[in-house]
Each structure stands twice: as structure tokens, then as C-alpha cells.
Amino acid sequence: MSPAASAEVPAPPGVRLRPMTPPDLEAVSRLEPELFGAEAWSPATLAAELDRTTGPGADRAYLVAEATDEPARILGYAGLWYGDGRGDADLLTIATIPAARRRGVAGALLTSLLSTAADAGCRAVLLEVRASNEAAQRLYTAHGFTPIGRRRRYYLAPVEDAVVMRRVL
């Protein structure tokens, strides 16, 4: 049985966390290029990822954070691969719109997915982050992640190293 993405984590005021659903894909697909530029996932990739959150062989969890006072306005989203729960999970993506940054939205999404990984039986969560993305690195450090290495030239647009971080659960 696959663990459900937990929406039980307290969210900031005016924000609700919930599992991502197919109707969210249009809005998330519009946000991807704004938030990730040339590294944005395509609508087809997003749909394929979401397909792996349910049914036999489910090995991923995706959440959205939405404004409670503005129906259907997605403030952020995040995804996790937890595999069979016997090893490490991977944080696949996490993003918030600029207006929602520094309000606890990303932290709530991350905390929820850490709970999902723990519920799945994972030992740790890994992630990659751009070496220049100091704000994200501070977020991850505040949530117990530590740097364990670098992946040279991991990002392509523009070319940049990734810092690999890990948190033991």
C-alpha cells in the first residue's frame, strides 16, 4: 500500500495543503516555466509523474498548496519519490510562486513530504539544489538536511553544479 501525501501538516494561515489531482495539472504546467525557466517539466512529464501517485506500483506523492481565500489559486507544489520504502526517498520538485515565498508555504510542503517518506518506511530523503540557490539551501538546512556532495554540471540551463543534500528520517 502506498502512503498518502499527508495534508495533516499545519499550513500557514490562508493556505491549504492537499494532494495534487489531474485538474491541477493545467495550472501547474503554466507555473513550471515561470518558476523553473528552461528546466521546466513539460505537461506530459507532469502528467506522467502524477499518474505514479495512485494504483498498483505507486511510488510518488505530489502536493499543492492553495490559497483558501482565492479558490483554485495554487501557491506552490512539491513532489517526492519514495520507491518501495526500503531505501532513500528523493525530493523531486518543490516550488512556490514569488508572492508566497518566505510565508512558510515551501516549509509546509516539505514537512508534509518528509512525513510521507517516513510513513513509507524510507530511511532518508535526498535532494539536489542549484549551488547558487542559497534561499532553498537555507530552507533545507532548517529542515534538517545536510550537504553530502556535489553533482558537477547537473543543471543545464544555465550550466551549474548541484549540491546534494540528505536528511535522515
UniProtKB/TrEMBL annotation:
The keyword Acyltransferase applies. Residues 1-21 are annotated as: Disordered. Keywords: Acyltransferase, Transferase. It comes from Actinomyces ruminicola. PROSITE patterns: GNAT. One of its GO terms (molecular function) is N-acetyltransferase activity. This is Ribosomal-protein-alanine N-acetyltransferase. Residues 15-169 form the N-acetyltransferase domain. NCBIfam families: rimI.
